Amino acid sequence: MRNTMPSKSPPNLAIVVDQLAALGARIRAQRKVWRVTATALAEASGLSQVSVHRIEQGEPSVTMVAYLNVLAALRMTFSASVVSDEPSKGLAESNAG
């Protein structure tokens, strides 16, 4: 049997969408504080301007590497130590049924 990609992406949990939107807003705010254009940020992070815009909008389809490249270009840090071991409501609810 051949491994194939699913025809549709799985739905994103609301909490994930909210967290990405918050991260995107923080990235945009930091870019504005530094007075950096989206074009300059795209060049510094090795991405297209469209990708930077999608990150600032919190698009879940953008890779984590792209988010991390933008954070690094803005001298922002991402720490896995802030990840909680507590299950989120969305995950707990989906496992309850």
Characterization of the model:
- The protein is an all-alpha fold and 97 residues long.
- It contains five helices and no strands.
- The longest helix is centred in the first third of the chain and has 20 residues.
Overview in brief:
The protein has helices at 14-33, 38-45, 49-56, 64-73, 89-96.
State the main characteristics:
97 residues; mainly alpha; 56% helix
Question: How would the blueprint of this fold be written?
Answer:
Elements: H1 14-33, H2 38-45, H3 49-56, H4 64-73, H5 89-96
Helix pairs in contact: 2-3, 2-4
Tell me the helix content.
55-70%
Query: Tell me about the biggest sheet?
Result: none
Compute the gyration radius: what is it? 16 Å
Structural class: mainly alpha
In round numbers, the mean pLDDT is: 84
The counted number of beta strands is 0
Tell me the number of helical segments per DSSP (H or I, 4 or more residues long): 5
Low-confidence stretches: none
How does the overall form come out from the CA principal axes? globular
β-strand amount: under 5%
Order of helices and strands: HHHHH
